[in-house]
Design brief:
By secondary structure, the protein is mainly beta. It has one helix and six strands; from the N terminus they run αββββββ.
Amino acid sequence: MPVDRDQIVAAIASRSVVEMRYESGAPRLVQPHVLYRAADGHELLDTYQVSGYTHAGPLPDWRLFIVAKITQFVILDAEFDIAPGYNPGSPKYASGLLAWVR
């Protein structure tokens, strides 16, 4: 079942750490920073992943997820600080910021 966008917005607004699953993968611990609409219309979630499953290199590091492919999204009782390299003015967000860490 797809994740509810309101959960993502709430996690970003409260700077809450999230345990999530993407497609059929194993759990990941992420810090959600930006929810935005891509030029192709997909809603994307930019996160700073701190642990868990990855095939894209060492952690912690930035990871991008298509919201429609997130299968589990659990907001944890832990807050995060803004991650290194965070830039809400990035050109990749030009098609529409929906929620972002402030």
